[in-house]
Amino acid sequence: MREPWDDKPNEECGVFGIYAPEQEVARLTYYALYALQHRGQESAGIAVSDGSTIQVHKGMGLVSEVFSERVLLELNSKGKMAIGHVRYSTTGSSLLANAQPLVVHYQKGMMALAHNGNLTNAAELRDELVKDGAVFQTTVDTEVIVLLIARYYRSSLEDALVKTMLDLQGAYSLVIAADNKIMGVRDPYGVRPLCIGQLEGRYCLASESCALDTIGAEFVRDVLPGEIITIDEDGLHSRQGLPSQKTAVCAFEYIYLARPDSTIDELNVTESRRRMGVELARECPIEADIVIPVPDSGMTAALGYAEESGIPFAQGLLKNRYVGRTFIQPTQEMREVAVRLKLNANAQVIRGKRVIMIDDSIVRGTTSSRIVEMLRKVGAKEVHLLISSPPVLYTCYYGIDTAEREKLIATNMDLEEIRQYVGADSLYYLSDEGVRRALGNLSVCMACFDGNYPAGMPTGAKAKLETCKGKC
Amino acid sequence: MREPWDDKPNEECGVFGIYAPEQEVARLTYYALYALQHRGQESAGIAVSDGSTIQVHKGMGLVSEVFSERVLLELNSKGKMAIGHVRYSTTGSSLLANAQPLVVHYQKGMMALAHNGNLTNAAELRDELVKDGAVFQTTVDTEVIVLLIARYYRSSLEDALVKTMLDLQGAYSLVIAADNKIMGVRDPYGVRPLCIGQLEGRYCLASESCALDTIGAEFVRDVLPGEIITIDEDGLHSRQGLPSQKTAVCAFEYIYLARPDSTIDELNVTESRRRMGVELARECPIEADIVIPVPDSGMTAALGYAEESGIPFAQGLLKNRYVGRTFIQPTQEMREVAVRLKLNANAQVIRGKRVIMIDDSIVRGTTSSRIVEMLRKVGAKEVHLLISSPPVLYTCYYGIDTAEREKLIATNMDLEEIRQYVGADSLYYLSDEGVRRALGNLSVCMACFDGNYPAGMPTGAKAKLETCKGKC
Amino acid sequence: MREPWDDKPNEECGVFGIYAPEQEVARLTYYALYALQHRGQESAGIAVSDGSTIQVHKGMGLVSEVFSERVLLELNSKGKMAIGHVRYSTTGSSLLANAQPLVVHYQKGMMALAHNGNLTNAAELRDELVKDGAVFQTTVDTEVIVLLIARYYRSSLEDALVKTMLDLQGAYSLVIAADNKIMGVRDPYGVRPLCIGQLEGRYCLASESCALDTIGAEFVRDVLPGEIITIDEDGLHSRQGLPSQKTAVCAFEYIYLARPDSTIDELNVTESRRRMGVELARECPIEADIVIPVPDSGMTAALGYAEESGIPFAQGLLKNRYVGRTFIQPTQEMREVAVRLKLNANAQVIRGKRVIMIDDSIVRGTTSSRIVEMLRKVGAKEVHLLISSPPVLYTCYYGIDTAEREKLIATNMDLEEIRQYVGADSLYYLSDEGVRRALGNLSVCMACFDGNYPAGMPTGAKAKLETCKGKC
Amino acid sequence: MREPWDDKPNEECGVFGIYAPEQEVARLTYYALYALQHRGQESAGIAVSDGSTIQVHKGMGLVSEVFSERVLLELNSKGKMAIGHVRYSTTGSSLLANAQPLVVHYQKGMMALAHNGNLTNAAELRDELVKDGAVFQTTVDTEVIVLLIARYYRSSLEDALVKTMLDLQGAYSLVIAADNKIMGVRDPYGVRPLCIGQLEGRYCLASESCALDTIGAEFVRDVLPGEIITIDEDGLHSRQGLPSQKTAVCAFEYIYLARPDSTIDELNVTESRRRMGVELARECPIEADIVIPVPDSGMTAALGYAEESGIPFAQGLLKNRYVGRTFIQPTQEMREVAVRLKLNANAQVIRGKRVIMIDDSIVRGTTSSRIVEMLRKVGAKEVHLLISSPPVLYTCYYGIDTAEREKLIATNMDLEEIRQYVGADSLYYLSDEGVRRALGNLSVCMACFDGNYPAGMPTGAKAKLETCKGKC
């Protein structure tokens, strides 16, 4: 799944839901998923409901590959509400069977559910259900949630949902179409984002506000941690499903994952990235000729660094906009070509300069080392690599694929070793405090940097972490 | 072919050629075409020669779609030299039959030819050949060139090429594989770029230097106007095919078409664009809060404007990186969504600000007007639209698709009318002199701005232009 | 789904299972499904088990379209046993989600199940399970069976299977991979076929013996009605799951559905069809010049008629072997072309002749009428249409799609009306007794002809039938 | 290209042309090509003309794969006449570039040409043209013909065609769309078939009469050897282009290639095959229990043999109707499966019997030997293989791919050796005289049996044949 130049954490999902009988709900969901495409590129799905029957279309690939005009028209004709999902998945479970939304027949009729996040007790819940005679057809957490809701259902879907939330541990933002309404749920820590929009008097839910902008909906507010939102013919209803815990929205959404034009929990992503650049300039001032970003991820922080430091910003690296997924990999002999196909150093900008290069994160370090080498080749006098976040030391259990712990460069090398590995003249990571300052007084999850998991860990994982603590 | 948001001129081709028996020539050509993909996205082709037999693979679509590993291996096994081509084409002639390189059997064996540019006397040449019993299987100029070479061939391919050049009018950069060598030709005005690279003692030719960087070749020099380059077992040979005319390299390559990391005729594209931004700031200083680019095309000029004016640069518009070609178009009712799917205004950056927005050109004006509207909607106090090139008033006959003359906004409206149409508070185009200053003392073709066609015009077109002169 | 010329009942499924650790089980299953392709062309699937983990690959289309060499190699590497399924489905539920085998995680690990047949109480069983908190992800009976097995499972899969069989009504031939073994089940009436083969000391199960022949397995015997077959490391085991009822194997398997080279319940299909032709000649002797079949379905019966009557057999109709599924339908104006694309009358054979044309069945009658017209056009003096089975009057509830009852020509017209509709000089259907004589003393289900449903009917259906009895 | 079971000669092309302004000419051509699909399955093309402009669509694969409804509608809207082509091609030149019709611009405008047959002097003609400055873009004979017509063209297309025919040697049936008319040409020996049909007052041309039947056209007559047919607004015109030679229509069209329902040069194909079976029974009477065909090719001859001999005809071998081109080949270990996937012996028919098996030809013998083995395995007491044509000893230079001479079993083994190789109890080939008797007094080309090439041979080939004469 990972390209040779892909050395970034991967978001695992994006969700959307809308109740709007007067609108083409499938088409709106399609455009919303388009805006959320950065959150998952491996599969996409839309489920449309007319209040009782639900029709779903799912497929592997990008939103634009999975849906055709014919499919959208077919779906549109079926409904007054819709939910949608885009998914990134780690190798192995990258199957169509695991694509979402998951649609089932249960006691009250049909239900469609889409999930962003990751449960830490999914295995335990699954085992209990199986012991009780249940069967599982997929390997996704979503199926566990759906089976629990179906079993807890007596007369009210909301009540069944609250009971289910009591069982779930970990991170989850859900959208559900069932029982003639759309529902949205955010876990009690609010790890994954979810917000509410309004479009011509009707309501919708989206992982990020950029999806609301795209379909022309007004941003209303973020869903609160532990809150259950219900959208139906009468409008928007709220119920606190579980008491809200100390909010712990994922810091990496701001650092890298979310789209720059989104605003999550009232903090704009572009602004937070710019501030990380500013903090970086304050923590690590360097005498240099130019500040360049690693495009596109280091762009905003580099502008912030340049602004704060007064050192000119320049475009020293150029990204090929046509790099696609079906690209033929260079052979072993041509491995240097691999990075140059995506990024090229502009010799005329770099030659003879002392360069500060800003990136948002380093996961395995291979790409960074090749870029530094590229800059030196075209004549950079010095290369200083500054990262706008702390070293990634711990696995994320809340829905982000950061690569396995053993492959994280920062768990295997200390700062000086990493500097040597990437070949930079100096290397600096923004401090935890720097990130927190940049994010204002927002209460965030920084487990991948500090190992403090607010919403719990899988049982097995906990033991393992304790063993190695201190050494890593 | 044109998407609703596609309001830019389109390059019509990119070419590459390499002689390197020790290398995987098809694979290198593939990567070079990848780097030249911005010059044409409708078809791609690679022809490989073992010195006598030539094998070709062509297809509709992106380089990554047309070639598979299997095809590359098959091609590689066949050769010691290769040429490649990417093509953009206007509607109607967008056929596989027109894809290049064109491969033919002629007196001396096989020949493959790839062409970037446009002949102004192709129709006349074609008519003469047909009268003489020739048949044409395609509608591309390339076939005219190939037939002329075959007819002029006596004992030397170079001589036949010189005779052919005497017949050709207009713009052409050619790469040819024939007679156990690779040849490159640039028309006497040097309208389209073509440069020479060196890779482990062997030579190659490319439309832009970024292709050389990508495959790890050293830039040697640009091919001179009217020069014929021959690359064979003995290295690089030069012959002045026709006397060089006053150079007239296309100004639009610098303004928009070429990749920012390329250097054409010794001027770096990023640097030239930055200088256009600087010139814009000098010609049109405005009191404002932020300078924002229309991504990606206005990026570098906006940085130049911000640098020269001291007004902060900001990312006020965000581009969706996943907008693909197979995208389902919004319906008439959702037309506003069309632009927002590609570009979204970041309200938190824009709200309450006086905004200078920089773009490189306006062709039809529809996209500009929607972006301005979008900025106002999220609270921009003022929007000033500054264009880093003069108004496009004339059709290009040298290989760029600028849309038909009647559809060019600047031929139909004066400056104030355009300002009202796009809805900006003010509108300014960089002057011809400003462009020339930014391009240093380079002698360029600016026919699309000033109507002076250095390499001639088609007969019919000339008459038409004279009729309307003064009014437009 | 139905082509204009498709006027035959459609089989709904074919199944196969094999336990053979020394063999490439996925590849053998692939070839077996190839041989069973006539039983279902809409989806295909293979599930492979290594004794604990099961991997499955399913897709829409023909076996040759669904599987690639890469997929087979991947599956092969996973297992020592496999089951496979081909499926025909009626419009509407023709979804990938409904493709089989169905693979689930249950208490004892993983289980894959493939089903041929149709339950008459599936809706009731489904309702009960849903009331008890279960959810359904598909609309196929198979999911009901799997959930029952999982719920009944205590310590033995066989016991759970027996309990499940007690709940099931209707027709079912199942193959199951679970618990380190392959199991096969046939309902107590033996409506759908299932037989046992032996290959190099290992055992397999198949819907028809032609699949055994194809992979080189020896035919062992048919599975008995109500019998549970288990195949594991120790060989073949049998247990009578439910007491066998009066056997009622489907007569239509012999008349049309099964492959001519298969032998089902000890009666060869080709032989049974030949005998139907013989019976037809005895029941309905006609003075004529030639006997021609409607290819391919009337072939064998026509040979039998010719043999018994002494009238020469001739090939008066020619079938186009390239008629595919993606064929572009003729427009309304060209509707006559539709049948001629598939069948063409050989004028030189037909002209001036009194023709006996033999077909195996008429469902809606449209195709028959066009063929008769075609024969007259090329000069047939008389056309006598003889059908080697009785009129189809009743819907099949046991897994065959005979078209809806209202569309069956024989429920709407009497014999003389049908004769006029198809335009034949005379029309004759083989009698029920004729079919029974041709099938020897085999006890068969002839519900579609006589309305006697040995394995029960769906509750709703029963009422409906009673209402209309006598009139139809 | 050849499947393991493909041991038959392959036809190389089928052509069709129609002039009918009132009709959907592209759609009619599509259906006609459908009926001619057996003559070529590797590429298909349709060119439509409005009298001046010609539009063409070509692709690799079956007619049903190459054309979509959208393409047909687009083509239909363009024209009042059309020509079409289906092509089989030998490996290597199986390229889209070689697909037909070939469409060119020449002096008089546009021309489309489709060709069935093979020139024996194509290489010489091509060399001469190239020496004169022409270039070739394909490797098909058709391009040679087109260039000659263009060069000879002065004021009349018919005259240019006659001059071209004077240059051509070998076999050719052509259809041409040019100059506001459709033309058809058959070489002076009439080696390949071509016939004329009438549809609602308009005329059309087809390789075989089955294409006329399919679109509902009346058969008018065969095109005469050397005749040029012109079809235009005024109807049908004939001109004898070259004096007709002693007719030499290809005997293999009757033996195997043509569709059974076609009538070529006034002899029906089914009838000729039946007579070959009758002749076989007279030349080689055998005491046996049953006569079985190798389906489908031996079917009609087997019926003839059974009729003449009085030995019962039986269906001992069953062909799988779903064997497709994308089938995954069995591995080396499973090679026996390869033939069984296509053909299965019906044990109940064969067991204990003395079997006469009829096939139309043996090319390499591998399939025959596997079928004989299969029959013995299911209990055949004796197997007698009778072939309804003489041994294939010579390469066809007139457009049929019979496999290379060295691979023809009959050039490498004598009768007894072949019998041993295929494992039959006896083997008999119908004599040359037997074939001639079956074909009545038709004058045919039997070069592949007797080495007498009526329309000449390629220069090189002639020498080679002389060398080996006598030994083979």
From TrEMBL, chains A, B, C, D:
EC number assigned by the record: 2.4.2.14
Catalytic activity: 5-phospho-beta-D-ribosylamine + L-glutamate + diphosphate = 5-phospho-alpha-D-ribose 1-diphosphate + L-glutamine + H2O
Organism superkingdom: Bacteria
Pfam families named in the record: GATase_6, Pribosyltran
Active site: C13
Family: In the C-terminal section; belongs to the purine/pyrimidine phosphoribosyltransferase family.
Protein name: Amidophosphoribosyltransferase
Species in which this protein is naturally found: Desulfitobacterium dichloroeliminans (strain LMG P-21439 / DCA1)
